Amino acid sequence: MLAMATRFAVPCPWEKSVENLLTRDNLQKWAPLLVLFALVLFFSIANPNFLSMRNFARISILSTPALMIGVGVTFIILMGSIDLSMEGAVAVCAVLFATMFTALGGSLAGWGWLAIPGALFVGALFGLINGLVHVGLKIPSFMASLSMGFVGIGLSLLITGGDRIRVEDPLFRSLLTYRLGGFPVMVYVALAALLIAGFIQGQTKIGRNFYAVGGGEDLAHASGLNVPRVRIIGFVIAGIFYALGAMLAVAQIGIAETVTGRNLMFVSITSVVVGGTALWGGAGGVWNTLVGVLIVNVIGNGMVVMGLPSYVQDGVLGLLVIIAVYLSTDRRSLSFVK
Amino acid sequence: MFELQKVEKKFPGVHALKGIDFTIKRGEIVGLVGENGAGKSTLMKVIYGAYQHDGGQVLVDGRAVRFHNPRQAMDMGVGMVFQEQSLIPNLTVMENIFLGFEQQFVHLGVVNWKKMATAARQQLDKVKLSIDPATVTSKLSFAQRQLVELAKVLTLEERVQGDLVILLDEPTSVLAKEEIELLFSLVRDLRKRASFIFVSHRLDEVIELSDRIYVMKDGAVVDVVDGKDADVASIQHKMVGRNISKEYYREEKQKPFDAAKPLLEVDGISLAGRYNDISLKLHAGEVLCLVGVEGSGREAILRTIFGLQKPHLGQVTLKGRRVETFSAAHGVECGVGYVPRERKIEGMVGGMTVYENITLSQMRNYSNAGVLEIARERGLARDWIKKLSIKASSENVDCANLSGGNQQKVVLAKWRSGGSDIILLDHPTRGLDIGAKEDVYDMVRDMCGAGVGIILVADTLEEAIGLSHTIAVIRDGEIRKWYDCPPGGKPSLYDLIHYMT
After folding, report:
1. Count: domains in chain A
2. Which of residues 176 through 205 in chain A touch B, CB cutoff 8 A?
3. Which CATH class is domain B247-500?
4. pLDDT tens, residue by residue, B73-117
5. What is the pTM of this model?
6. What residue stretches are annotated with the ABC transporter domain (chain B) (predicted)?
7. ipTM score here?
């Protein structure tokens, strides 16, 4: 019952009375969104500067790479697995993207655009290996992906030799610099990717399979689903979104390096969980992740606007995860937690 | 000595217990029966302390008590032997017996295993089980585990002043006939030490064992019957408010099957440790029942036919084509549908909606290049909700919120809507109440009429006899005897048991 509670795919039955709307399930379903509004309200009152178009644009720019990573890992968490390889995956994708981009002439106007599908391919390949290690060698996903993350970090160091690769093509940087309606283009790119993710989640066979595997793996198997294949495809899709996130991160700062992916693991998983996707799979989705990413970044930005030091922010985020997991767990049905 | 007076229990929207009066005297065996949802399990939970009553009184030896948790109930001598096996499989027998009460064997923080083993052996003697207390529990048979659970509850004898009340929740559901007899004689012996509350779906067993029988319906006790003058039909009548007719198993709808149309041929398959040299044929419109005790190999045969387990020897032919790859995906592709015993684990995904569950095995037919056609899925689900009269307010309802019978219908709808014509039913009526069982029997007959072949592992022998065209009696992994079961010419229970044991 938790599952439906957090899946936004089913429209809310408006014809029901207000009393019915205030059920525990509904509260749980909409809680992340309410928290987001409450936070915006709180920071707006605390500092009027928070409530400005420029500040919202800033929040959205910071959110885009994390959103892409978060969306990728959402699919994995929906299956009841976990992926901790994103920092390595982002490093490899970012560095290889920049290398290809530079080698192909260094401009989107020329052959440089080929680096984009190239990077997406690298991400997919990285995810494929991740999935094969997890499924083929039967290594728990958290261990397989954690190791793959280190492999990715090492690989990116090998490629760059520890150097930074600058990407200064004005056309590519216009992802950040060119604004439509106050928001840079990269925000729209991320939203488009989010829509695609939403489509995969709600309208495709593989999306349904993610929920089935997360909701009951044995059952999915007994219904004739090829569960190992579903898992591997999940990791491939996640890898593609990591690659997208990597490129947006490069566009944001104009530099690709080993540390491009730093901190993204904690932020993305925090966002997924805070958004209301269940860690044991089967419930939640990418819309939850959008809300989660915004919550995390609004808190970060709000505290900066209020002038709090960064270590306070890290502490607050950590607490937030604990609170979110606490609130989203239906303890009536869960007697023991390992 | 143990008494409930006008006990009430309410949940949001449900009045689960309505003024229950319940008495048990020293050394008595009291039966508790009722359809699913009648309030039996709620009542039991109040008795062993998992729920707190919110009206009336619970009296132990005339004193009003209130159990805040099962541990407190145990301290007052009330213990529960759980229906689902509550032993931890990776611990040893003695660790399980004294789980939570190890303190008595601890000296300076170190457990004295020898002492614990001796004490455990003493408990096991009470239930006449001679196994090494250091055995890992997962190695035991179901019957042995059941006895260990009983032994665990009997440790209360040493710990508690006064008399014991022991609840037995469906203790016979996983036991074979002779094991049941053993359990019953044991319970009769133990009444010197304890009173028993015996809860079961099997009325004949309740009648055989109980001194008095409480019949529950809709959260209230509708009658208390003396064990000596009880009979199954009248109790059933009180439970459901209607008579169960001779047509219970829909025998009048049993039509001869089409012997010219074999759907499935199994030729000499063997799987070490499970079954040996099994050959059988299933035809369109046939119900073939595999009868045998728990562990005789019935389930393993089903799993092989579905493709979950590859046999070491022999071959399986589905609709004229020999099966080369054993996988669930291949079985589904060939039109085999498997309705497993554990609905919650392998039958349906709780958290997914009715329509999502129904199309789970056939998403290929409801998707185009990987994109789902959700409108068509919903239409299909609506059709089947109507066809099988599934009680769900819409196809968007979470399956976890349906009752057991309706969940079973969703599982059947899943396979039938996908065009499966070989259906494997493993205990399809387990845990269902009588009305829901009848629905399942109707569905079985309807499926046969539509040319579906069914392999059934029935919940009871009566069910097996009533539903089948053909019965294969299995013992120790081998088919010992075949019976043809035309309406009017069915074998008796005795015939079957003779070859089962």
Report:
1. 1
2. 203-205
3. alpha beta
4. 888 889 888 765 678 888 889 988 888 788 888 888 888 888 899
5. 0.72
6. 2-243, 254-501
7. 0.74
